[in-house]
Amino acid sequence: MVDSPGTALEWADVVVVGARCAGSATATALAAAGRDVVVLDAATLPSDTLSTHLLWPAGLAELGRLGALAAVEALGAPRLTEAFAHGGGYGVGAAFPAVDGIDYSMCVRRTGFDDALARTAVAAGAQVRQRRRVTAVLWDGHRCAGVRYVDAAGRIGEIRAKLVVGADGRRSTVARAVGADEPFLTVPSGRDCYFAYWRDAPDAARHVAAQWRAGADLGTAFPCDDGLVLSLVQPPVETGGGRGPGEAERRYTAALERIPPLTERLRGCERVGRVRSATGIASYFRRSTGPGWALPGDSGHFKDPVTAQGIRDALHYGRTLGEAVADVLDDPVALDAVLTEWERRRIVECREIFHWTNRLARGEAMRPLEIELYRAAVDDPDLARLTTGIFARTRRPAELYTPARALRLAAGALRHQRDDLPAVLADLARELRDAARDRHTTRTTLRGKSSRGAAPKPRSSLTTAGPGEHHA
Q: Where is this region: Disordered (predicted)?
């Protein structure tokens, strides 16, 4: 067995596929621990990618832990010090909870943000190589042993490594190659997502991250860098709708018209660029580790953008993956055990916010208990802070839906919405059913065991014989 003619062969401790959030975080942690890390990305950096890019305080804290916060703040996005949510006729404002002393959020466009992360990885000692498209995963028996790639000039290269990290997004090449691209749990969203940037008005409240609910629509306004504001709408999925030219513009404009407070927020603003879209969204968990491979970021786990958790989780679980494996890369048995535990920990830590996100992604009008929650939060600052804390990952959804609070919300809904008693009772029954279903899913599918039955079957036919030897 011989290498293909013209194939460049090299070795590294770890090869990371994808240089954005999860990939750069993983590489930074590994390089800081003295490991030889090569990061490959098919794109040219800096460049944009589809993302709503709101960072809660926990996400900014992750940047601080990686040493990237100063570079990101230098991009000029304003500090968002107030969260505002309006729905059911009630507007609720709250300060952000502090994480590592950071009590504000930021909305930073991905072009500059991802470049800052990649530069941080390089400063830590990682090699970041652009315009390298990974085409295959290499194997040594049943163990992942590296990748094959093609560079911008068409040259083929191979990197043999002790660990392959697939940080290459929802359509992950690595996940597909190792047979892990089919989720073991998936929940389709009831919402589509459309967003655009606007040149913000001179008198705009650029310290407020705002969200509005109107009917079944949801819309946001997040001030970001370069004097812009990101305005996102998530209307219900439109069955049978078109996908041709102008469809995103049509749906975005129609949703804005159905959310008058958001339209008012954008008064005096000028649209910049086209409307971008994400449709056919589904939240999921994939098997995320195996012999010699791991999937941090969206490649292994994804939540609907309605709660803006993706960047924080990509940074956090990329960093913790790198920190966890740095000392055991030379011992395959120990490495696989650490990978299994890392995956188990992510499942356990993310399953509750996964359920919470899926509820908000239903694409329905606000229900009686939701309306009562907003009404109660207007007069109860602790309740408003608790709700904001759930989004910021400093509090748990279970703290909101305690039996005592659920009873109070139900009683309040019955009292304040007595003209719609059947709807209140139906909503209460649904909440009980949904809570039971989520508990069942947590105890079974998301019980925190990463070895669920047989391991995925690799889909790459390439094999390697061992260190220093050749493969076909």
A: 436-472
